[in-house]
Amino acid sequence: MVKVLGEKVYAMEEPGFFRVRETLRGSGYLPLPIEIAADGISIEKLMQSEANVVYVTPSHQFPMGYVYPVGKRMQLLEWAGRNNGFIIEDDYDSEFRYRGRPIPALKGLDTHDSVIYLGTFSKAFTPSLRMGFMVLPKGLLNIYQEKWRHYKSTVPLMSQMAMSDFMSKGHWERHLNRMRVRYRKKQEVLISCLQSELGETVSVIGEQSGLHVVISVNLPVSENWLLEKAKQHGVLVFGLSVHISEKLKHLLKILLGYGGLGEREIVQGIQLLKKAWIESGKGD
Ligand SMILES: Cc1ncc(COP(=O)(O)O)c(C=O)c1O
Questions:
Q1: Containing structural domain, residue 177
Q2: Are 40 and 66 within 8 A, CB to CB?
Q3: pLDDT tens-digit map of 196-229
Q4: 177 within a domain of the structure (yes/no)
Q5: Best exposed site among 11, 191, 195, 250 by fewest CB in 10 Å?
Q6: CATH code, 121
Q7: For residue range 67-98, what is the model confidence (pLDDT) as tens digits?
Q8: Which chain positions lie within coiled-coil regions (predicted)?
């Protein structure tokens, strides 16, 4: 994608997906961090920057879990139209929206052909397939076809054909409907357990969709302490600092993934977090 886009100035959400930051950095383009709020990326800050390509996760901002309202999506598209810019829309887990009305993807609202749409089967199906896809605007598709066709897909054709068959027979739609119900239930269990076990110590962010939530932890400890304590009690949770620039590093937020866990494991996990973070005490 970077090859097809050519010389550009990139920006991305801050906090934002560190794998994207590091991949762009590895290609020689360190993206400018643009702050976000509960309604998504700051358009004002984006306009003040030199960027002409921006990476965003509007369906479920990663890592914070915010959902961009339609107004913000229109502003982003206007920005792209006015600046001959491109928006990279990473729609990684939009299949699982539990609350609020559905909002169209940027790609669906785009009239300037300025959105590069990224999708993955890692969340809705399984990450071990290593299957994803990209929908390029026409202009970029032409550039790809003229100059960069020697970059081939690394996903085995057999897997692609199996998925195509799965979809055309209607299994994909049924799978998503089934999983949406299942994940919603898991999330309900997670949130009610967080409330009953950890109460005021935590507050939950980003529960409208997706397969993870973020919790703010109201304790006078470090992220490292929280991660280490959880690990000692056999629970794997993730810190947000890796997705955050220096100035925001003090935010004490932890990402909890629940997609791959059963309801009993979720309950046990939260009970263990209570032991780890509250009952075992600070400083030991
Ligand atoms: C923000 C975001 N985008 C995309 C992906 C999917 O990555 P991949 O398709 O490489 O598994 C993930 C997976 O964790 C993610 O968190």
A1: 173-279
A2: yes
A3: 999 999 999 999 999 999 999 999 999 999 999 9
A4: yes
A5: 250
A6: 3.40.640.10
A7: 999 999 999 999 999 999 999 999 999 999 99
A8: none
